[in-house]
Design goal:
7 strands; 4-stranded antiparallel sheet
Length: about 130
Amino acid sequence: MKKYLLIALIAFAVIAKAQVALEHTYDSAGSFIAYPSQAQLYIIKLEVDSEKYVFVDRINKAVKLYNLNHTPWKVISFAGTIDLDPNSNAQEIMYISQHLFNTDDKIEFLYADINANTPDCVTQIINEDGNI
């Protein structure tokens, strides 16, 4: 019986075909592996507005949200935040949510920055209006 199952699985694997198709490209987006990476792209699930693509642009200090069909939805600036080391762009954008930090339906996220040369660090909550 094991022999027949193994043969069936091998036969299926040989005739199975698939192809990956490029759906969309985002300029300068990539995975966030190390701090030299200036932009990052990932998907989140918001409590009210469903799933969105998130593009964190550390150069222009903006969090750009896109619908699943890749149309722009919202841009949230974090230009008013405290940047401890303007030369490093090592800001962390975390916990993008609609209800984690308060009960309104506006989007908020946690902004954190460190200075590698000093023990200084800063943490701020930014909402979609740019208010800290």
